[in-house]
Amino acid sequence: MRRRVVRGPLAAMLVALALVGTLATSAAAELDSAVLTTEVTFGSGITFHMEVPHASAEPASVEVRYGLPNSIVVRRSAAEFAVADGLLRATYAWEPRDPLVVGTEVEYRFVIRSADGSESRTAPAAVSYIDATLPWTTASEGLVEIWYYAGGEAVEADARAGIRTALEILRDSFGAELERPTRLFLYADIATMRRDLGGGASPWVGGAAIADLNVTVLHAPVVNRDSLDLQATVAHEITHIVLEHRTHNSFGGLPAWLHEGLATTVEAEITERFSYGDIMTRLVDEGNFVSLRGITGSFPADSRAAVNAYAQSNSLMTYIIETWGREGVAALLEAYAGGVSDDEAVQAALGVSLDELDRAWLGTHGVESPTFESLTQPEVAVAMAPPDGEGAPPAQPAPNPVVAAAAAFALVAAAATVLLVRRGRVARGYARH
Fold first, then answer.
1. How many CA atoms lie within 13 Å of 166's alpha carbon, on the beta-carbon side?
2. Burial bucket for residue 323 (CB in 10 Å: 0-12, 13-18, 19+)
3. pTM value?
4. Rounded-to-integer distance, Cα 242 and Cα 196, Å
5. Rounded to the nearest 5 degrees, what angle is found at the Cα of 133, between the Cα atoms of 3 and 197?
6. Residues 151 and 222: beta-carbon distance below 8 Å
7. pLDDT tens digits for the chain (433 residues)?
8. How far is residue 412 from each of residues 97, 241, 277, 380, measured CA to CA in Å?
């Protein structure tokens, strides 16, 4: 079902959500009628409000606790409050040091502390950080909520096709499915998209997939749009989110070669966006490649080197599927879901060591003595801007983190920075769109 999201002039600046809180404990009966509201000033922050009947003494303090839904990291901030006319009113204006990513959902609640040290609190409520200046239309495809404001049903149809292709292949061939709702934001104007990604995005940024926030943001041009290319890009990015859901654990994540190898394999079911086989052949002929261990971490900042790494990941995934079948890939995902190392996962799933896999794969390309280089880059990946010519790699370098999910979601502070930027916790959305 598609629905139109209508915003008035005032709502173009603020999004107000009225949410009724309920008691979290039996000792807080006075909070049954608490009303929570928020104001989202896009590009600035979120203001949290609470109003609740209050007949007892003035509280010692009121604070708001907020963070990602279901996160163990919660930020606490003192709210301004006053008691008048039998009502306790509290307000806190959160202005994060680093911009939030569009679509981020923030869960929050108010906590009232009495002079004797006892506490009462509201039930948690949630607010979504959305750019209400755009005339969004939303639609749903399974667990994916599609947001777009231009291009009409044609853009929506392309997004749906890409989502369906990715979800069907991942489910039927590799036993991986979306486990939580996720949002896909499609921007017709790339400059607006970069602004809404946090304002610090460089000119070559074409989107981002951030699994911890269950958000994917992509450029979807209306004029001269390649329908199949958009479908493939969406399928690529949704693959990253699905893989993170399938293998989420507290100890590690997927290597880049598995993330990107599978994402490029899925996108190829729609269209060939790059001639990965030809690129791999050229790399081998030039001796300009890295080994499997070299494509384990994040991809290089240079765009041409990044496309080379995509080609190598695609080649490696093709070799694994041809040798062990799609069951071998499913076994790899199952192993990584257990939080094991790369060496342990490959050994358990494929019955060979990481180095044996490396030598066997490169051996099919005539490489006998691979070098072991490292591609050490920041861990939040983003989609690159469109290439200069058809079949050519992007002319601009792959971006630094799009005001990285940790930076883009500053409320979770230093503790969550580790959770969000370590390998695998933020899906590597390396689409070349």
1. 30
2. middle
3. 0.77
4. 24
5. 100
6. yes
7. 433 333 333 333 333 333 333 323 334 435 778 999 999 999 889 999 999 998 888 999 999 999 988 778 899 999 999 999 999 999 999 999 887 889 999 999 999 999 988 899 999 999 999 999 999 999 999 999 999 999 999 999 999 999 999 999 999 999 999 999 999 999 999 989 988 887 655 565 677 888 888 999 999 999 888 999 999 999 999 999 999 999 987 677 889 999 999 999 999 999 998 899 999 999 888 887 777 877 887 666 566 777 888 999 999 999 999 999 999 999 999 999 999 999 999 999 999 999 999 999 999 998 876 654 443 333 334 454 443 333 333 322 233 333 333 333 332 322 222 222 223 333 333 333 3
8. 12, 21, 42, 16
Amino acid identity at 379: E
CB-based contacts of 335, cutoff 8 Å, min separation 6? 344, 345, 346, 348, 349
> 3-14 as b/e, with b when 16 or more CB fall inside 10 Å?
eeeebeeeeeee
Distance from first CA to last CA of the chain, Å, rounded? 27
